[in-house]
Amino acid sequence: MMKIKITTLTPVHVGSGREIQGGFEYVALPQEKLVAVLDPEKVLNLIGEEHLDLWVSCIEKGENILQKIPQLRNRSSAELAARTIPSRKPVEKPIREQIRSGNGQALLPGSSLKGALRTTVWAETLLDNKQLVKDRYKLGRDDRGKMRWSDSSLQKQLFGSDPNHDIFRLLQVGDAYFNNTAVFQTQLVNLKGKNWRIDRGEGKGTSPDTLIEAIPAGQSAFYEMRFNDLLLERAKGTDTFKQYTERLSIPELFKLVNAYTERLVSDESDYWANEDLPNGFEPYPDELDRIIGLLGSCEANECILRLGWGSGFRSMTGDWHGAMNERDYDDLIRSLRPPKYDGLLYPKTTRFVEEGLPLGFVKLTIV
C-alpha cells in the first residue's frame, strides 16, 4: 500500500448531487466573506417555536429568512451555521455542494480518482491499438440502420470480460479528505458562429454562471493506493487479468498519467493559441501552459491528473475518438447533439472558473 499526497492545482469539484438553496438553506454573510449553511437547531433556538410558521413560509416561497425574520438579522456565522464556506461575493443562487464524508469533511472519493485513472489507461491503450477503433462494429451495433454506440465490447476485450476479471480489480484507491472548500462562480465560453464568447445564458438549458462549492487550488490531503500483487500472483495460469496489468503498477501508471495529461493539455493549449479569446477568458491558456510546465518538472514519483465536474468532454473520455474513421466519428458526434450543429467543433463549450482558471487539475505524489 502506497501513501499518496494529492494537491489541487486548480479548483476541483466532485458533487454530492445536491444543490444548497440560497436564502433558507444557506445565507450570505458579506461582512465575514462567507456563506453560512444553516443549522436548523440554531435557527429554531433564535426565532422560537412561535415563529416557526414564518420560517416554513420562507422555505415554501424561496424567500431570504434574514430579510423576513427580524430575530436572525445581524447574526454571526457562529450563531447560525452548521458550517461555513468562504465566498468573496454575496450569493443567493443554488450552490452545487461538494461531496462530503459522514463526519462532514470535503472529499475526493477514491471512486472518482480511480475512474479518472481508468480513463487514462483506457484512452492510451486504445491509441496504442488504433486498429481496434477503425472497425465501427467494435464500437456499437447497427439497429435498423441506426448505430447504437457503445464501447462495452472493447472494454471486455481489453480489460476483462466481467467485474471479476477486470484488471482494475488490481488497483485499490482510497478517499482523500480535505479541510477547506470555497464558493466559485463558473462560466462557459461558447463558440457562436466563428467567434468564442462568454455565454450569458441566451441558450436554452445553459447555466453559464453555475455556483459550485469546490476544493480550492493549493489544498493537500493524503490517501492510500495499492496495486494488488498478491491477487495478480494468485491469478497466474488463468484467464483472469490476462493483459495490460503492467500498466496499473503504480510507477508505470504515473508515467502513463503524465503522458496522457500532457497530450490533452498540449492539444488544448495549441488550439487556444490560434483563437481570439473573449474578455475574462484570457488567463485560461496561460494556466494550461503552467500545467505543461509542471508536467515537465515532475519526478518519477509524481503525476498530474484531471478529474471532476467541469473538466470537459476530452478529459472525461480520454479524447481517443480522433483515431476513429472520419465517417464513424462524424456519425458519433451527430448522435450526441442536434443536427443544427453539424460541421461545428465538438465540444463547442469550455467551462472555467470566473478568474479564467480551468477546473480539475491535481498533482499526485508518492510519499
Task: Please describe the structure with a list of short key phrases separated by commas or semicolons.
alpha+beta, single chain, 6-stranded mixed β-sheet, 25% strand, 11 helices, 367 residues
Task: Explain the overall architecture.
The protein has two domains: 2-12 and 106-366, no CATH class; 22-86, no CATH class. 31% of the residues lie in helices and 25% in strands. The chain has eleven helices and 18 strands. The strands form five sheets. Strands 2, 6, 12, 13, 14 and 17 form a six-stranded mixed beta sheet that branches. A five-stranded antiparallel beta sheet has the order 10-15-1-18-16, with helices on both faces. It is globular, with a radius of gyration of 23 Å. The mean pLDDT is 93.
Number of DSSP helices?
Answer: 11
Q: How many domains make up the coordinates?
A: 2
Rg value: 23 Å
The termini sit apart by 11 Å
Low-confidence stretches: none
Please indicate the percent range of residues in DSSP E strands (runs of 2 or more).
25-35%
Order of helices and strands: EEEEHHHHEEEHEEHEEEEEEHHHEHHEE
Quick one: how many beta strands? 18
User: What percent of the residues sit in helical stretches (DSSP H or I)?
Assistant: 25-40%
Q: Please, what is the average pLDDT?
A: 93
Shape: globular
What composes the largest sheet? 6 strands, mixed
Please identify the structural class as seen in this structure.
alpha+beta
